[in-house]
Amino acid sequence: MSPGTEKTLLAAVTEALDVALAEDPRVLLLGEDIGLNGGVFRATDGLFEKYGGERVVDTPLAESAIVGAAIGLALSGLRPVAEIQFMGFLYPALDQILSHVSRFRYRSRGRFTVPLVVRMPYGGGVQAPELHAESAEAHLVHTPGLKVAVPSTPADAKGLLLSAIDDPDPVLFLEPMRLYRSVKGEVPAGVHKVPLGKARIVREGNDGVIFCWGAMVPPSLQAARRAKEDGFDVAVVDLRTLSPLDRETIGKFARQTGRVLVVHEAPLTGGLGAEIVAICQEEAFWHLEAPPQRVAVPDTPYPAFAVEEDYLPQGATIYRALQKTLKEP
Amino acid sequence: MEMERILDLEGRPLRPPRLSLEESRVLLKAMLLIRTFDSRALSLQRQGRIGTYAPFTGLEGIQAAAVRSLTAADWLVPTYRDTGAAILFGLPLLEALAYWKGFPDSYRAPADRQILPPSVPIATQIPHAAGIGWGLKHQKKEGIVLTFFGDGATSEGDFHEGLNFAGVFKTPVVFLCQNNGWAISVPFHRQTAAESIAIRAQGYGIHGRLIDGNDPLMVAEAVQEAAERARSGEGPTLIEARTYRQGPHTTSDDPRRYRQEDPLETTLGDPVERLRLYLQKEGAWSAEEEEETLQEAREKVAQAVAELEALPRPSPESIFEHVYGAEPPFFQQQRDRFLATLKEAQE
């Protein structure tokens, strides 16, 4: 691993795409405004100039065809990386993703595969307009055949994205908007890969564990640090791949601590927290000291942004839930 | 836009066709083979020997005439209605039948034939075809793409998005609409207020043609010309082939609920009949040849049916095959547990 430089998560995404384009002539980027404009968040900044309009391609404004055509590009032998401008704009493409991306390999009995990546800004917390702050990961995780990754650090953004592009299966790559420019970290230079399906231990601890991902990692860590002041060592695990989930690490920390809290910024009901709690029951039932808890957003549509900070889990609300989990007899 | 045709309803050529008599004879034989398959598949479904089946009765001319322009470098992107096209491009009869019998391992084309699994959600294959064409062009690979869809598909967003992409990226694709006048029970005039689907090509800046789909010589020419355009870098073509659906939508459908007489039947006739009349008038087809061709077709289909019925029931293991290229560990565990539980339960 070469020494890296301090970068934002967004710059790490750009660097991963740059490396992929440089390393593999099969890689092609497609999406809306990703060319000369460099993407609405600038995730593809400079790549159009460097690799040209044949490999960094502005498409018509049509999400279903961006994914549908990416399927065709992949079938023809390329490694397309599609950008959907915001996760809320993924919905027109869900038919392509749920009906085709996820099952080309299955239906063709392994003959025709679609190793593509669909990247998109994900989650809330940046005072964006309506439908620009969605956390719809559960829909994707519930679809067999797909893989889903969510980085929370610049190094993971680069490493997971390069693994996703290399993976034989289609990967939905969710980039937490709130962390795009708010976190900085060391990013290894050159080809740096982080395996899909392996969680990251953010903080060790034996008194409790918080399972989280994306923009929920920083406030979860904040809550764990506050619990430390109360004398509790709480582990924080960034799942970073939501499909497949790292069941081994979930089970290990549930057994090790006996006290589990899951935090997500997607609505509670039918959210991934339910699945993670179920895994804890399956893997660690006899080790649990307290009922596993979930901190999620309520079952409402994502609200207008003037109230989003109240709506989203914060360090303080996670800490309150953690206290309850830790003090349960 | 006028509908182009070469043969009239009595099989008289209105102008000299591009296909030679020998090519036309080969075409008729191909049509008779898939018509035999189609009618046998319908019987098998009625006898409960295969599942729901989507017949292509009346579309044999379009499907047979279209795929004759394809080569080994090309891609066929069919729907569930296009079993005839897939067979004539090289899908084994057994693979086609196994698909309709609900076998997971089915619809597998030989290695030198790129035939995608039939698309089921309407129009969703159209962006795939545009994307494959784009990818071939990008990689400077040989080959073009042929995709089929019906009139109902043209109301879907993916029709619009796919054709628009194909136009913008000037991809080597032939978009072939089999306008049979019906989307299950809904007639064509309920799909669009436009006079034709072909005129929409103009809206995408691509080449469009409206042809008589029950005139196999016309279809053969139009697709050949569209394929030539695609191969020479002139981009996509939208062909609307007017035809009519002789049978039900699928074997689960009862057209008597919504359709009495179809005026298209009298204006378009039957494609097999029209090509046969033409060849007979030219002295290039006889009743003996017809019987010989049908006999051979019946034997081929019977052989495939015998092979189908000799296939063992698919294993429950097949449920778990080809879901992932890199299988997650829990997926493997799940398979092992599921199969063990199933085995125990069945003992």
Structure characteristics:
heterodimer; A: 329 residues; alpha/beta; Rossmann fold; 2 domains; 7-stranded mixed sheet; 5-stranded mixed sheet; globular; B: 347 residues; 6-stranded parallel sheet; two-stranded antiparallel ribbon; 10% strand
Please give the CATH class of the largest domain in chain A: Alpha Beta
Point out poorly predicted stretches of chain B: none
Shape of chain A: globular
Would you tell me which CATH topology of the largest domain in chain A applies? Rossmann fold
Order of helices and strands of chain A: EHEHEHEHHEHEHEEEEHEEHEHEHH
Structural class of chain A: alpha/beta
Average of the residue pLDDT scores of chain A:
97
Structural class of the helix and strand makeup of chain B? alpha/beta
CATH topology of the largest domain in chain B: Rossmann fold
How far is the N terminus from the C terminus of chain A?
A: 46 Å
Would you state the CATH class of the largest domain in chain B?
A: Alpha Beta
In total, the number of domains of chain A comes to 2
The CATH superfamily of the largest domain in chain B bears the name Thiamin diphosphate (ThDP)-binding fold, Pyr/PP domains
**Total number of helical segments of chain A?**
12
How would a crystallographer describe the biggest sheet of chain A? 7 strands, mixed
Q: Give the low-pLDDT segments of chain A.
A: none
Question: What is the alpha-carbon Rg of chain A in Å?
Answer: 19 Å
Question: For the largest beta sheet of chain B, what order do the strands appear in spatially?
Answer: 2-1-3-4-8-7
What is the tally of beta strands of chain B? 8
Specify the oligomeric state: heterodimer
How many DSSP E strands of chain A? Answer: 14
